[in-house]
Amino acid sequence: MLTKLGMKRLVRLHMLPPIVCAATLGTILFGAADGQTGHLVDAQEAINQIGQEPVVVEIEQPGDDAVLDLKEEQGSQEDSDRVALQEAIEQYVAAFNERDVERFVALWTEEALYRSDDRDSPVAGREALTELVKNLFDHSGDLKLLVDTQSLEFVSPQVAIETGQASVQVDGKVTESDYRTVYVKQAGKWLIDSVNEQVRFKAPSRDWELHGLGFLVGRWVYQADDLAIDLRCHRSVNSNFLVRKYIVQGRDELESVGIQLIGWDPADKRIKSWLFDSHGSVVEGNWEQVGDHWTVHSNATLGDSEQGTFSVAITPVDANTYRWRKFNRSIGATLLPNVSEIQFERLPE
């Protein structure tokens, strides 16, 4: 007889010694032979009949309908989770393109991990992710993310893995990568637990490390009665460096012309600069961000071979203004006075 819950299976026990039959019945009762758990209708009666007639024992086991019901229930939940994951992916892209740091980071777990083969070390935790994306959003012009999900598989009811390809455009420069994202379900919500990214197409660049200095790009001027400075900055090919060219004009004569390269030094793992001016001087600087400003500590070899040192502080005010001052100046053993703070204004290029 077939029912929605199961079907009865008939098992015939041939005439065997009682101890053997009892062991056989035990195997049938507990399903050790085929992994199924059965229910013996009347075990004692079957044992009493051994030696007379073959015994027929009815055992309940799950039926095809019950298995199908279970599979349908699991499939329905997976379909629901798949829709939720697709929505999470869309929210991720939207938050990135809208530069919404809070909404973007909320899509990750507290202990989330981001790895990329073009970064020296992984980014771990929401706090580090917040700093990373805030820096990117604050110092990028045109910014757009596109993703193409290739597969979405469920490892368990609480874990899913997405693989695909991503394209990120930053200030007109496109980077394409393959990615693998692990999602975990926490409190009914799917969150990103880790992302592993492998760049497929990208010209060699350290542009990421220079994002914090992106405000320097453009044309800047300072104008006073006896001094004018015209400074222009652009990104190099592949954005490995910022290239700054300047002209310092005094009241009656041209005082100095120079060029400065700012880039990431992979050996020292820091931002450095190299300046060359029309007097033959060479200046090497080490850059660091301190609070709301950048400080550059420099060592100079002047055109006459004398050695000097100085520091510069650069403080962004808004998109069109930054302040600049020079301090801790010396040439040889002689200390020099600080240079008063001046303010640069952006001009259309």
From TrEMBL:
Output the Pfam families linked to this UniProt entry.
SnoaL_4
Give the range the annotation lists for the signal sequence.
1-22
UniProt cross-references to InterPro entries, sorted A to Z: NTF2-like_dom_sf, SnoaL-like
Domain SnoaL-like positions: 80-194
Keywords per UniProt:
Signal
Name under which the protein is recorded: SnoaL-like domain protein
